What we know:
Blueprint: E1 2-5, H1 25-37, H2 41-51, E2 64-70, E3 75-81, H3 83-93, H4 97-114, E4 122-129, E5 136-141, E6 145-150, H5 160-164, E7 167-174, E8 182-187, H6 194-204, E9 209-218, E10 221-232, H7 238-253, H8 263-267, H9 272-279, E11 285-291, E12 294-295, H10 301-309, H11 313-323, E13 325-329, E14 336-340, H12 341-350
Parallel strand pairs: 6-12
Antiparallel strand pairs: 1-9, 2-3, 2-11, 3-10, 4-5, 4-7, 5-6, 7-8, 9-10, 13-14
Amino acid sequence: MKVFGSSINISGLVLLIMISHGQSAFMKYFDRSIRRIRPNIDKSLKLLNNESEDYTNKNNKRDQIFSALSKCGGIKVTAITARNMMNELMLQHDLSEVAADALGRSIICGLLLSNGMQEEQTYQLTINGDGPLRGVFSICTGKGEARGYVGNSALNGFNLEEAIGKGTVQVVKNHPEWPNPFNGITAIRHGDIDRDVGIYLAESEQRSCALAAGTCVSNILFKAACGYLVEQLPEVETKVIEKVEQNLQDLVGKHGGDVSVPTNLFLNGISPFQISEQILDGLEMMPLQQITPVLKCECTEDRLFRSIRLLPLQEVEEILEENNGVEARCHFCGKKYKMNALQVRERFVNAKGDPSHG
Length: 358
């Protein structure tokens, strides 16, 4: 059994909550999102007082994303356990331990950072490294849906940093109604994904956050896939930041500063609700929402055909002549699609519209 997790350096780059930056256009959008959240504080207090048992998750048996605000509205905490979902993905892709760790951390980070977005909004995270893993790719949505893959799912004999290599962290956020997506990019500094994503948040989006993600993989199964995100919201008071910093130090200190935080926390049975309580201790936690993360792939035969239509017609005919049809396998879920030459030609006759749309 291997336990993976990043070291938590309270005074260093992992805890970015103390870093101050000027506001970018993205941060102005972020401010508007927070203003939509804050009116729910009174409702959240009622939920906490009357229905906190709804958030219990003994031994983290079910997958759960839990988010909460401090009563002052200055700190948001999101915590996740997604062991069951990642086990399903591990079996789909037949992942080795290092590939499972990489993909697990990427999806955990994506789910944490997409939490609170509009349901149709997507968060695409690409770890584009030159290592033998050949990159990590994931897409998550505001309603907790996720999918992803690695370039070399069977890779063995490397630690995560070696497997990732050097390159870039790339983020694309999009929504069906946006005229253009939001794009951001920074360099890979460590190769452990969550620390690199934390650096991306500070450098590219000017967001002050503490982000941690980790996994525990035993042969072909996840025993844990988990993480938490602490976000400093606009106009938070210094004393609140100091309290959160102390709570994080205490949280890590209880486990001897183990490099496997947060993995060991969740292996020991601490739930997303409980870890949020500890981070917001003394600040009156106000629950925001609880959702269940799920795998969801958007592949269809229609999408395959649209891809075929993007090719030059002569090239399509050459493929059909050589193979008597086309066959494709989805990178995300592994499903195979087959269309024989007659089916492809018939669909071309009836095809309408621009294949690059829809």
